[in-house]
Amino acid sequence: GAVVSQHPSWVICKSGTSVKIECRSLDFQATTMFWYRQFPKQSLMLMATSNEGSKATYEQGVEKDKFLINHASLTLSTLTVTSAHPEDSSFYICSARDARGTNTQYFGPGTRLTVL
Amino acid sequence: DQQVKQNSPSLSVQEGRISILNCDYTNSMFDYFLWYKKYPAEGPTFLISISSIKDKNEDGRFTVFLNKSAKHLSLHIVPSQPGDSAVYFCAATTSGTYKYIFGTGTRLKVLA
Hints:
Chain A is mainly beta and about 120 residues long. Chain A contains no helices and eleven strands. In chain B, strand 6 (about 55-60) and strand 7 (about 60-65) form a beta hairpin.
């Protein structure tokens, strides 16, 4: 149980294009989903918290107009990197918290974004 | 301001011996702590957690110890196996926020 998937697992795009990453909880309903990014040899940094049916809450320093988050259902959240630039290249990871209220987040396998 | 720190970036242990990974935190509001294991280019995998009302939690080969007065937690893996080789992150959160603060990670290498 508690499986979270992400799609795509990797993507290469040209500078200026937009990229959408999907995060799905496969066997549970997720009231809250989280989006992280990880630079090489660094820790996971929380970008935003996504609650189903409401606007995402962004961490300080994260541009909400650049990283659009939509949490349309209890099993799906999407992150769209708009007008991507090379500095947006990173490993993006989502996690989901079970709607039954546990304090444990379950993570997706991550998406490697490379912007040329 | 790094609220959660893992001061050892790497650790090597012989197979069969104990691995001890350490984590320190500064925020006294944290009341729930977790350990995750991560392989390169994969998402973290949940290992074990502990609430601040406890000082120890055990699950198979993994035991987490919490010392609230010292704001310190540790993960013990006994016996260590080569498959345990990965990066281990500790995370801390405050109930109700559900936001995790991750440590910087410790790369564990278990030598056969």
